[in-house]
Amino acid sequence: MTKVMGAAMRRIQAGNALTAFGIGFTVPFLYIYVAQVRGLGSMAATSAFVAFALGALIALPFTGRVIDQRGPVPVVMGAAVAASAGALSLGLSTGVVPILLSALALGAGQAVMQPALATMIVWCSTPSTRTRAFALQFFMQNLGLGIGGLIGGQIVDVGHPGSFTLLFGIEAVMFLVLAGVIATVRMPHAPSIKDAVPKDPGAGGAWKRMLRHRAMVKLLVLGFVIFFACYGQFESGLAAFGTEAAGISPSTLGFALAANTGAIVVAQFVVLKLVEKRRRSRVIALVGLIWTGAWVIAGFSGLGHGSALMAAGAFITTYALFGIGEAMLSPTLAPLVADLAPEGSVGQYNSAFALVKQMALALGPLGVPLGAGVPMLYIGVFIAVSLGIAWLALRIGKQLTAVQDNPSLAKAAVPAEPVAVEASKRASEQVSERVAA
Hints:
This protein is an all-alpha fold. It has helices spanning 3-26, 30-37, 41-70, 72-92, 96-123, 127-155, 161-183, 206-211, 214-229, 231-234, 237-244, 250-275, 280-301, 308-329, 333-340, 346-363, 367-373, 375-397, 402-405, 418-436. It has two domains: 1-192, MFS general substrate transporter like domains (Growth Hormone, Chain: A), CATH 1.20.1250; 206-400, Up-down Bundle (Growth Hormone, Chain: A), CATH 1.20.1250.20. The relative contact order is 0.14. Residues 190-204, 413-429 and 431-437 have low confidence and may be disordered.
């Protein structure tokens, strides 16, 4: 990694962490703010979450092409300004319509930032450093969210709406700080497995080309299943299962969420050393097996055997195991998306993956009726889904080149040697054949 790439990466990661810190101030308290502080009720609060997700779903299909045409820097800056306006407006709004419009803008801005920042990380990294870069991004995000939520919890007061306005104001400022930091980033031309930096922004048919790319289509399906089965259940189906079937108290649920974040923060770089030189498809498959165990333990907590303390311990363990799986995925999924993207489409591929994530999160609450009403069936379904993750990951591994599946192999190549040059040519030909397929 060059000095220019290193300097750019440090600024990107710093801006990303500060933004996560700002988001952490408001995310845990949005429902309380709309339903109780503004006195609009649970239906309005639910509608705010829907508007937040809808903003993301509306914006993301168009984001990739703009990134590939204009570059990620102006996209991040524009999205940050839109999110800042949405956050500030949300903190000042008192009626349903202004709150929904504010949530729409905030959701769209935050969603657009994700693939744009991911593209910046791709441009500022090499195949051999990209795994660690995305792991650091995930670590900083979770650390920022955790610290922001902890501090925000000490500031908020349901009896004083101004305290919530302060939180949303801090979030708005953090988005502007991100825009300011990104404006100073000097973007390098980074080497990639397939030269992921766009050179032909005018290339058309990006969506059609991506949908003909079988490995990417399978990865999108896998991503949807992963986000629906894990992230989509944290605060919906699994929470309903815990409180209804396992008799978990709200405070225990809070400890479980803290255990999830703690597992990520503690395990991230330990896990990174174990996975960065191994095949990505097998790492993802292992995550499926770990999550299978997590769902089995969750099921034990709802059986009613043993003490309430044992049930609580099992439930907290479930969330911690999910965190370990997340720590394994962070240096695996996002870099794989980037390495699959053909020339001129890295923004498109990142946006498509972000869109799939948002769709999975939006559908996550569908697990609530099952988790609360038929708890053991709920557990059985997601045990099967987790095993399906392992199976899909191994299937995807057959579609990847050796370097795509294990980027550490690229370090063995020595460009000055004729043999290495010839091997590089053969690898490029294989990539072209797979994309064409």
